[in-house]
């Protein structure tokens, strides 16, 4: 009998995973108002139906891309969503344009999809994902 692919986790890890899997109340993941400040180049703000307010910069969102490739790369390097990949130290600093969406499109009634200025476009930012990675002081202390 092969045990490939089986991973044993501690009770603490199992409880944490269970808490992450817990569904949020429908009003907590239903936007009342969504503002994508594409022209200003600043970010996204969402007012949720439960009265909560969330805001993210475009740089934070790009570094928190939920696609499988970005997720796996963050997991391997131990980076949290929104944390930029460290740049290699070089003698000459080469300018890199800040992350900005070229296009933003709704995905059904459950998500946003960004096409970034670095041509990356495979991440779908669901309302639930965005609420779980809310950057407000209250949500950050809960995590």
UniProtKB/TrEMBL annotation:
GO terms for molecular function: metal ion binding. Residues 38-131 form the Gamma-butyrobetaine hydroxylase-like N-terminal domain. It holds the Pfam family GBBH-like_N. Keywords: Iron, Metal-binding. PANTHER family: OS02G0197800 PROTEIN (PTHR35303). This is Gamma-butyrobetaine hydroxylase-like N-terminal domain-containing protein. The lineage of its organism: Bacteria, Pseudomonadati, Acidobacteriota, Terriglobia, Terriglobales.
